Description:
The complex is a heterodimer of chains A (421) and B (215).
Chain A: H1 24-32, H2 36-48, H3 52-63, H4 75-82, H5 96-117, H6 123-149, H7 157-162, H8 167-259, H9 264-283, H10 293-308, E1 311-317, H11 327-343, E2 348-355, E3 359-366, H12 381-393, E4 397-403, E5 407-415
Parallel strand pairs in A: 1-2
Antiparallel strand pairs in A: 2-3, 3-5, 4-5
Chain B: E1 2-7, H1 11-24, E2 30-36, H2 39-49, E3 53-57, H3 65-72, E4 79-84, H4 89-97, E5 102-105, H5 110-121, E6 126-127, H6 129-138, H7 157-167, H8 172-179, H9 183-199, H10 203-211
Parallel strand pairs in B: 1-2, 1-3, 3-4, 4-5, 5-6
Helix pairs in contact in B: 1-5, 2-3, 6-7, 7-9, 8-9
Amino acid sequence: MTNSAPSEVRRATRDSTDSYLGGVASGLARHLALPVIWVRVAFILAAALGGMGIAMYAGLWMVLPTDDRFTDEAPGLASATRTGKRPGRVRRMADVGPTIAMGALAFGIVIMFESVFGRGALFWPIVLGIVGVALIWRQADEAQRERWLNTSERVDPVRAMFGSGTWASYARIFAGGALILSGLGLFALTSGGIGLAREIVVAGLLGVIGLALTLGPWIFRLASDLGEERAERVRSQERADVAAHLHDSVLQTLALIQNNAHDSATVARLARAQERDLRTWLFSEQKEEGASVAASLRALTAEIEDTYAVAVETVVVGDVAVTEDVAPIVHATREAMTNAAKHAGTDRIDVYAEVSPSSVEIYVKDRGIGFDPATMAGDRQGVRGSIVARMERHGGTAEIRSTPGAGTEVVLSMPLQEEKS
Amino acid sequence: MTRVVIVDDHAMFRAGVRAELQNAASPGALDIVADAEDVATAVAAIREHRPDVVLLDVHLPGGGGVEVMRQLGAATETRFLALSVSDAAEDVIGTIRGGARGYVTKTITGPELVAAIQRVAEGDAVFSPRLAGFVLDAFAGSIEVAAVDEDLDRLTEREREVMRLIARGYAYKEVAKELFISVKTVETHMSSVLRKLQLSSRHELTRWASDRRLL
Lengths: 421, 215
């Protein structure tokens, strides 16, 4: 593993995908590059030694941001997600099992602890309180995650607390509250009898209600302002994006099509180019930086489709940067695609590239007229010079398989030097 | 006769597919019994008409094509062929894992679509070159033999070869000829890959999917 870009500060986040409680342990493990089980065991040990682990865990839970963010999706996918045309995130029921096991384990540890050290008046109230707070924080995480997913909607204070209001979210809040209150009650009961217990619980409840009444309207207004502002910002940005893109591409193409309405080949070519462009803009996820094999092939596809009015179906598995080793195979691919487009007399070419750690293989196939490789005319400089000789010069191989009437396939292969890491 | 329902949220596209299928299919081969525009109408139409094949758009109001298959459950005899303009791997693999028996893009020609529908109706899998590429990506990388507890978690060498030929643009017949096996055997391999794609809990595949919020 290499550490790139020293200027970039690595920030720890909580891991929202691999979590039992708040994802603190797995996030920390990722940050420190330690096995997650070590971190979990360390927390549990520290918790057993006078509760230090619990305090640390809670502190980190509070300050570490979650790694759930606005996902940066292609506009088409983002729009489909917003309008509910894609399946949403499904909760994994499998997660419940380990959490129950952890809960049972924690309960066992608590019982053991108690039997060894005896119980103080503070013990059970604190345990109850901690569990209650953990439940409520967990709900805060869930609600936050849903806010990230619902980017276009206004922030609703009720939603901010309960998320989309599944029974689990209500259950978490109320169970959490009840646990904290009963922790308080239990504390009062063990230290001062039933009367004091009732008074403390009532006082606690009144305190919560009072706070809600005084701070409630303020929070409500803050949240709705925030929500409106965000919704407006998201909307206007989207509008600007779409307008700019439509103007740059679709409008221009439509104008060109009108001008060339009599020429069906040109219209088809323009329509195909525009479709490819729009599709890439809407749905393509990988916006690779620099020159990679996949990016080069995509550019080649566009170029060949535009120049020769053929459809090119390009499939790429894996990817690697175009280095000195790889450049010859890309050039040879270009030559093979050009030959197929020019000479095969077909309207469709299939290109398949597979990048493995040890080699790059590219196949260019057409179903055109084909030729007999044995009698390949000497003047077909393209094939001999640009493909076979070029590949062999750089340590690769090229094979041309062709049958008259059935089409041609060019098989290119270039070994890669294993990177020393 | 193969009974077909077309599900897509664009009316123009539904009409286009309908016309295209009627042109391309031999008379009496296909019967387009209904179309639908979202999850609710699709589920209702499929329950009412019990078609052999549903052409299912991946992106659909009401939760996507996956939701249609989920609501109908495993009991249905109907088979699904995903048809989409989206090339996002996560959506395509998600739909396959949801129960679709194949995936083709909306730029497919009429005769190819008819062939794909008939293939699905017979219970075979339909892999476009693009889907074959996604499959090879999903099962890419080496996996320690000791870590494999089920055959589901990796492709056999033969299945990988078949997938690579499909990705290279070979038709089933050409794949069979190239590998010196029968078309029937090619179909068996494809079905087996489809099953692995749907059922595998391979760590890599799961992580690949959960990175993209599929699971």
